[in-house]
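hi got a favour to ask and not much time before my train. below you get a single protein, a line of residues and a line of whole numbers that encode the local backbone shape. could you go over both lines and see whether the tokens make sense for that sequence. a few lines back from you is plenty, here it is:
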Amino acid sequence: MPISTKELLTLLLSASKEVVSDAQFVINQRGIGYKNFIPATFGSQAARKFSTRSKVTIKQTALEPRNLQNAPDEYEEMVLKRLASQPSSTTPIVEWLGGGQLLRAVVPIYYSEDCLVCHGNPKGILDMSGYPREGAQAGELAGAISIQIPSDHR
């Protein structure tokens, strides 16, 4: 029997809460500026926990990811290139593939001012996590959340 949307959302919420709970000790430490609990870390950990409990795969991806585990697959790369070539839109790209066997959804993410602390200028200078800054500007495509749902979840 396919799992319902309500059940999936409950699993995602539960996974998200567990990730925060697991990191709570580090989050609560005083006197430490950078704690490596950034949006990408939280998102990857929550997605991993969620995906192990469901048949749904959630992944953060980008054309030039910092973490190679987030490299786009062929479909994601095609969609990201399409998104990068058009005006920004928060509208997800949703398609059934494989004769209706797999629902793919790609939700674009754009850099906000807050993101630029690590991803902005000056390009190439290491940010607080040790990665070179991308030189991004607010409003530019940062990447996307990619979701794969098998047809037995309909």
